Amino acid sequence: MRISELVERTGVPLATLKFYLREGMLMPGEARTATRSEYGEEHVRRVALIRALSDVAGLPLQRVKTVLGLIDSPTASLFESLGSAVAALPPYTDDVRADETEPSAPEYPRAHAAITALGQVYDPRFAAVAQLERALAGVETAGIPMTADRLDVYGAHVRAMAEFDLARMPEEGREEQLGYAVLGTALYEPVIAALRRLAHQDIAARQLSEGSA
User: Structure pTM?
Assistant: First the structure.
């Protein structure tokens, strides 16, 4: 297909597609002439991925580019690549950049205590540790700190979701594994947040209905 057809298939303006091409986020089409290139279904899927990361997951385009680069060309171990990719996902922290797994702050006391209480591995190099530290500090400042019973319930259910996800990770191919893990994290977190809000709504509605009966 021509780029005009790619515009029609994806609903993305021509100027935006050209920007993706210039930035290396969208692979070039197959050159037919000096002024014409052909694009295929892989380009349609790639544009959909870029839009999902930017529109659904809320990543700035530079962060999208970082994630795509890690998926396309993972150079470190799967764990390190995943750490770098997670650092590119919101929420962002001041002490973790999108291109590193080593936080500048050596210790995260709130996160350390929570992770230890859950019996999980504490590794401050993993970006999510700094993200958890900031989140826990935020709820503490707001006057609704994480309690032991809330942590137990949240931890058990989140771990069950993680086990479900990882059990379905591709068995081979580091690029496929990394893509599955990163995209699953980025694209499903808004789903999880929405489902939690809907559960709150449903429970509240049922309780109010029972109370007025």
Answer: 0.72
